[in-house]
Specification:
By secondary structure, the chain is mainly β. Helix content is 0%, strand content 29%.
């Protein structure tokens, strides 16, 4: 038996969109359209023998473990798959599933059969569905088993009205104390903000600091949706492309901007980033980690044109990425925890004061997380106290190819 997990999930009383798939190498789990877990699984996708366990679809549970909660909609895919191109990409969970092309797209309701409304059915054969049970310890035909019950829940989203489906009931977390001297601080400890139920995402406003709440700006937007959102107290990418979000610290001094990665298991939160010298979505500097936090890239966009400046090795077990930027001589200092990564001088856009977060492109919905974002005004050309130098700087240009695999939901 193979179990799959994540470090992110729903709170009691919260409605969510859940999905799971296999890309041939890993089982991936998704919450509200964001990849949240990855567990290696080599297969087979369907076990051999009369029971054919992994080839059966169990909705709501089995004879020994059942979901505690309510299920509003179910759909699955066979031979066609919307997650086939990039399994680790964020996606938009649909508010109302269309009938054509979806398997099990009707709402669960009292019925002895399950309608197959897909274009080709399962493996090209249409099947009306039969009522099954687990009296023998595995799913088998059971015409006398209780039929599913449809319960009208006044707190449930209204799936029949895609224009106004309702809101998710989600708790608001308690924010940690603001770090001493911070002009801007945001731990993202507030209600989840994703694309589920017609939502547009977004980071809202920061929690505290000398400036008080400051509105996040972001770009580019797609059909009015913000590129970043919040999931379980951390900022996450919601779009599957290049994007940046920033705030203005309202000071002309040198700045220290930093962000924590989630440092989690099951493949999520291994990377983070910092954007600095931000003017808008076409003009800013960036530094981001990749390859599970082992590599770091530095560069900038000017008038929408990207320039990669340098690449570096990262130390092991780091948690916080820090960048200082000087408006006088254009000095840049990069530190991971207390490990010095790089120091250089580049005056390009040195007077820009915006700072924020950056998503480098597609396929990063699982790896990228941002937490405890902080901006502090510092003395110009501050030298960070470091314990030792990280691995020697190494300039390299062989960027990893994007993951592309077939995945079944």
């Amino acid at each position: 038996m193979t179990y799959f997990f994540s470090d992110t999930g729903p709170a009691p009383g919260e409605w969510g969109h859940f999905a799971v798939g296999w890309d041939g190498k890993n089982i991936l789990t998704y919450f509200n359209g964001v990849p949240v877990g990855k567990v290696a699984f080599n297969g087979p996708r369907q076990t051999l023998g009369p029971e054919g366990g992994s080839g059966r679809l169990l909705i709501g549970g089995s004879d020994h473990q059942n979901v505690v909660g309510r299920i509003a909609q179910v759909r699955g895919y066979e031979d066609t798959n919307p997650r086939a191109v990039a399994p680790e990409s964020a996606f938009t969970p649909e508010t109302l599933f269309s009938v054509d092309g979806d398997f099990l797209s009707y709402y669960l309701r009292s019925s002895s059969t399950i309608a197959d409304l897909s274009r080709a059915g399962r493996l090209g054969v249409s099947h009306p569905g039969t009522l099954r049970g687990v009296a023998l310890g595995f799913p088998t035909s059971c015409p006398t088993c209780p039929v599913p019950k449809f319960v009208v829940d006044p707190k449930a989203p209204n799936f029949a009205n895609p224009a106004s489906p309702g809101q998710i009931s989600a708790p608001v977390g308690s924010a940690p104390p603001v770090p001493e001297g911070a002009r801007v601080f945001d731990s993202f400890s507030r209600q989840n903000s994703t694309y589920i139920l017609g939502g547009v995402g977004g980071l809202g406003s920061t929690e505290g600091g000398a400036l008080g709440p400051v509105a996040w700006q972001s770009g580019p937007t797609i059909q009015g949706r913000k590129p970043f959102g919040i999931l379980n107290g951390r900022a996450v990418p919601l779009t599957d492309n290049f994007s940046v979000a920033w705030v203005l610290p309202a000071t002309g001094s040198a700045l220290l901007v930093q962000s924590d990665r989630q440092n989690a298991t099951y493949g999520s939160g291994v990377d983070t980033s910092v954007a600095f010298r931000v003017q808008d979505a076409d003009n800013f500097w960036f530094v981001y980690t990749h390859d599970s936090g082992a590599k770091l890239s530095l560069g900038y966009y000017q008038a929408g044109i990207r320039t990669d400046v340098a690449n570096y090795n990262m130390p092991t077990a780091w948690t916080t990425l820090k960048v200082s930027t000087s408006p006088t001589d254009g000095g840049i200092n990069i530190v991971a925890n207390s490990f010095d990564i790089a120091s250089l001088t580049n005056p390009t856009m040195k007077s820009n004061q915006g700072c924020g977060i950056f998503n480098n492109g597609a396929g990063l919905g699982l790896s990228n997380r941002w937490d405890n974002f902080t901006i502090t005004a510092i003395a110009d050309r501050t030298v960070f106290e470091t314990t030792r130098v990280a691995a020697p700087h190494r300039f390299w240009h062989n960027f990893p190819a994007r993951l592309s695999a077939r995945i079944y939901l």
